[in-house]
Amino acid sequence: MSRQLFGNARIYTPVDEGRPRAGKAQNELAHWPQGALLVENGLIVALGDEREVLAMVSPAEKLAEVDCGGRCLVPGFVDPHTHMCFAEPREAEFALRLTGTPYLEILRQGGGILSSVRSLVAAGEDELYEKTLRRVATALRFGTTTLEIKSGYGLDTANELKMLRVIDRVAKEGVADVVATFLGAHAVPPAYRDNPAGFIDMVIEEMLPAVRRQGVARFCDVFCEEGVFSVADSRRLLAAAGAMGFGVKLHADEVHDLGGAGLAAELAAVSADHLLAASEANLGAMAAAGTIAILLPATAYSLRKPYAKARTMIDRGLPVALATDCNPGSSFTESMPFVIGLAVLNMRLTPAEALTGATLNAAYGIGMADRVGSLDKGKQADFLLLDGETPAILAYHAGVSSVAAVYKKGQKIKCIPSGGAFTREIQ
Ligand code: NIG
Ligand code: FE
Which residues contact 132 (CB under 8 A, 6 or more apart)? Predict the structure, then answer.
């Protein structure tokens, strides 16, 4: 395969120095105003100033050249927290929330996540695959080239395994890199209504071994929240999961400050996600433990809650990543540009901090930084061309996507979301 040269680009990327970028380093991007990217077999072999990259190519070599037209070129987004595998939206519930019924009250009444469980259990695998793939296609169109998808709408062994099979099928479709997370403890199913600890016992004894045998999920997550799973139950589950070889994550302090962030630090979790209500002491403990804060501003937006204290987190040295949380309840969006806009304008991240959060730190948050998340030599040529001069365009041009072209492993991706199909164009 001939090599490809993407030239005449304004390149911006975080640089991977072997760890997530925290503190001041989250704000630092490498930048070449007249840059070029050299790609071979889908991998980056060189990038930098266009003249310097061209000097590395023999004049006799037939290169496939792409003129980026002076557009901004950034790494493909990594969305490290989604619940994209679900059967039906919950529009009626959205209307209820708009008239004042709290999110957790809807769950307490047997709706919310439990309503998604009912529709997922009823859905066939092919249907679920088509629907999930369509959402992944939408995400791709908005620049997401790698994403995490969680189970958690099955809540019994058979249906959790079914979800993970569907997620695996989407992963094998191959157009986006997909990482699967087991979230069997996402809500307390009705049969265990008064006995969440008993449900956790079942998850540990029955589900975790079955999920491990199936071999799809890399991480185990839990919804640690008032009226869902306590810190003690979450600790038991994640300790067992960690001992079985899963990376551990938590939905922590999303609505109440239960101490989930502190538990994440105690377990040296890969990430603690949400953190809207997390205490400053526990955030400090997370920074010391090296746990990544995955923030989901579209959830605060949709739930009309105060945003996570991203500025404090960055100032305290916590690496911050950004994600959509795409799910039918608390945050229905596949759009990382929307999330970046909220992060910049409502959480006061700089555009550079937001880009690092949506790419490299997110890749670390799902164990994918060896392959994606930055434009570094040896990584996949996953990148975007933006209709703008700097990454700030993503927040500045609001309500639309500035993502003009999406490349995965050097191939331009065209998404036809209505058919859930993809075509790849080789340039
Ligand atoms: O991250 N909080 C728990 N899980 C999701 C919402 C899932 C749903 O409502 O379907 C979240 O907000
Ligand atoms: Fe979530």
Answer: 84, 85, 86, 149, 166, 167, 170
